[in-house]
Design goal:
This protein has 493 residues and is of the alpha/beta class. The protein has a single domain, classed as FAD/NAD(P)-binding domain (3-Layer(bba) Sandwich). Strands 1, 2, 5, 6, 7, 8 and 16 form a 7-stranded mixed β-sheet that branches. α1 runs parallel beside α12 and α5 crosses α12. 52% of the residues are buried. GO terms for molecular function: oxidoreductase activity, acting on CH-OH group of donors. Belongs to the GMC oxidoreductase family.
C-alpha cells in the first residue's frame, strides 16, 4: 500500500486553501495525495459544456428525502467553479450568538482569532472591497478597490450610511492595491457570475491550480472516498472507490469502480458537508453528533420599484450589502438577514420606467436543528442520504417580517412598490454536520478542525460551522483552512 505524509480529500475551498498553507511548511520531499471524485476540465469546457451537467452529476452522488436540493459542483475546484463570488466575513456577533442573544451555540473561536486569516484569504482571492467604510474590523485593506455602486445603491449609502456598504467580491476590479497583482480580467458586468465567461471571478482553476502541479502533490481524479482507516485512536489512511471521472458519476462510472486505499500520517477531509459526515459514519466514527445540524441560509428575492431612479449602472452583478437587520438585539427573537442589492435586475413592465427599480435578496440565517441530518444511505451505503424537515421557526419569523424590514431599509428612497417572491429552494451553502466546539459530547471537531477522537484527522469546510450566520460561507471556509494548516504545521499552534 502506498504511503503519504498527507492524504487530502477534495479540491474546493476547504482543501485548496489548506493545501496552499500546508505546502508552505512541508518538507521538500513530502508526499501528498489529493483525492477528487470529479474530473478536471479547463475553464472553456466548464463554461460551455460541463456547467449544464453539474447539478445532474451532483444529484447522482447522493440521495435526498423530500424536495430540498443541496447544490455543489463535483469537479476539480469544486464549488469555486460555480459560486457567485460574494465574500462578506462573518460578524463578531455571529461567533457569539449564545452568549449575546441566548440562541444556538457559540463558536469555540471568535472573530479576532480568524481576522488575520480572513485577510490572507482575501489576498489570495484578490477580493475587491471597501477598505474604509466596512462593517468589519480590519487589520489591512482589501487587495482591490470596491466595485462602483448603482444609482439606487448610492442613495442607500447616502440615506443609510451606517448600515449600507459596497459588497466585497471575488469578481476582479481595477485598480489593485500596490504590491498585489492578479492576472484575472476585470468583471465586465455580464451577469453570468456562476460560470464567468471572462474568468474574472476567483476559482481554484485560475487562482490555486499551481499547488496541484507541485512535484510533492499527486492528484487522483475519480476517487469516491468511503472511509478513514484508524487504529489505536489514530487515523492511518483512506479507502476509496476508483472510477472513471470522465463518465460523470453515471451507471457506467459505477460499473468501472475498483477498491483502492493508501496510508498517511495525516488525513484531511474537505469533501463538503454532505460527504464529510458520510465518510466519518462509514469509518465507524458515529458519536451521535456526526451528520446532524445540516442547514444553509434561506434566500428571498424582491424587486423594489423606484420612481425616477435607474438601477443598471453598477460595475458588477451584486454591488451592495445592507446590514440593518444582519446585526442587533432582534436576533434574540428572530434570524439575522443580510440584504444583497444587485445591478443585475429585472425590467419593470411599465412604459417609461423599464429600468426604474432594484433587485434585492434577503439572505436569512437558519438555526441549525439536530433532526436535519446526513446519514449513510441504507439502499446504497456508498452514498449519503439527506433527511431534512424544514428550516427553523427562528428563520421563518424574520422571513415573515421581510416586507416591514424592507420599508425600514429603503426609508427615504422614492419607493413606489415592492414585489416579494417565495423563498428560494437553495442558496448553495451546505453547512453543519461535523460542527466545531470544545465539548466532544456536542461537537465533532475542535477549534482547529481536528477530530476530537482521531487527533491526526482534520474535517474541513462548511461542515465545521457551529452556526451559519447570514454571510456567504466560502471566505470563512478558506480562512478556517488557512488557520488550521498554519496552526498545525507552521508553528502557529
Amino acid at each position: 500500500m502506498a504511503s503519504y505524509d498527507l492524504i487530502l480529500v477534495g479540491t474546493s475551498f476547504a482543501s485548496s486553501f489548506f493545501l496552499h498553507e500546508y505546502l508552505r511548511h512541508a518538507r521538500p520531499d513530502a508526499k501528498i495525495l489529493v483525492l477528487e471524485r470529479g474530473g478536471r476540465w479547463p475553464q472553456a469546457k466548464l463554461v460551455n459544456e460541463i456547467r449544464y451537467a453539474l447539478r445532474t452529476i451532483g444529484d447522482r452522488t447522493f440521495r435526498r428525502t423530500g424536495r430540498k436540493p443541496w447544490l455543489y459542483a463535483p469537479a476539480f475546484g469544486g464549488t469555486s467553479n460555480m459560486w457567485y463570488g460574494n465574500t462578506p466575513r462573518l460578524l463578531p456577533e455571529d461567533f457569539e450568538t449564545r452568549s449575546r442573544f441566548g440562541v444556538g451555540v457559540d463558536w469555540p473561536i471568535g472573530y479576532d482569532d480568524l481576522e488575520p486569516y480572513y485577510c490572507d484569504a482575501e489576498d489570495l482571492m484578490t477580493i475587491a472591497g471597501p477598505s474604509e467604510h466596512t462593517p468589519f474590523r480590519r487589520s489591512r485593506p482589501y487587495p482591490h478597490s470596491a466595485h462602483e455602486l448603482s444609482d439606487p445603491e448610492k442613495l442607500l449609502l447616502s440615506r443609510h450610511g451606517d448600515d449600507f456598504y459596497a459588497c466585497p467580491t471575488a469578481r476582479a476590479h481595477d485598480p489593485a492595491r500596490p504590491g498585489v497583482a492578479t492576472d484575472r480580467a476585470p468583471c465586465c458586468t455580464s451577469f453570468v457570475c456562476n460560470f464567468c465567461p471572462v474568468d474574472a471571478k476567483f476559482t481554484v482553476l485560475n487562482g490555486l491550480a499551481q499547488i496541484y502541479d507541485d512535484p510533492r502533490v499527486e492528484l487522483r481524479l475519480g476517487a469516491v472516498v468511503q472511509s478513514v482507516s484508524s487504529a489505536a485512536q489514530v487515523a492511518t489512511g483512506v479507502e476509496w472507490l476508483q472510477e472513471d471521472p470522465n463518465l460523470l458519476a453515471s451507471p457506467e462510472a459505477i460499473a468501472s469502480r475498483r477498491d483502492a486505499s493508501a496510508s498517511a500520517e495525516i488525513v484531511a477531509l474537505g469533501a463538503n458537508a454532505l460527504f464529510n459526515p458520510h465518510i466519518l459514519l462509514r469509518s465507524g466514527l458515529d458519536d451521535g453528533v456526526v451528520g446532524r445540524y445540516l442547514h444553509e441560509q434561506v434566500g428571498v428575492d424582491a424587486f423594489i420599484h423606484l420612481g425616477g431612479v435607474e438601477g443598471f449602472n453598477g460595475s458588477t452583478s451584486c454591488t451592495g450589502h445592507h446590514y440593518r437587520f444582519a446585526r442587533g438585539d432582534h436576533r434574540r427573537e428572530r434570524a439575522a438577514s443580510l440584504l444583497e442589492t444587485f445591478t443585475r435586475t429585472h425590467l419593470r413592465i411599465e412604459a417609461g420606467k423599464w429600468r426604474h427599480g432594484l433587485r434585492v435578496t434577503g439572505v436569512f440565517e437558519d438555526l441549525p436543528q439536530a433532526e436535519n441530518r446526513v446519514e449513510v444511505d441504507p439502499r446504497d451505503p456508498s452514498k449519503p442520504v439527506t433527511r431534512y424537515r424544514h428550516y427553523s421557526d427562528y428563520a421563518q419569523r424574520s422571513i415573515d417580517r421581510f416586507a416591514q424590514d424592507l420599508e425600514v431599509m429603503f426609508e427615504g428612497l422614492p419607493v413606489e412598490d415592492m414585489i416579494i417572491e417565495e423563498p428560494r429552494d437553495s442558496e448553495g451553502h451546505i453547512l453543519g454536520t461535523a460542527r466545531m466546539g470544545d465539548d466532544p459530547a456536542t461537537s465533532v471537531v475542535d477549534r482547529d478542525q481536528l477530530h476530537h477522537g482521531l487527533r491526526n484527522l482534520y474535517v474541513l469546510g462548511g461542515s465545521s460551522f457551529s452556526m451559519g450566520g447570514a454571510a456567504n460561507p466560502s471566505l470563512t471556509i478558506a480562512a478556517l483552512s488557512l488557520r488550521s494548516a498554519r496552526r498545525g504545521f507552521g508553528g502557529g499552534g
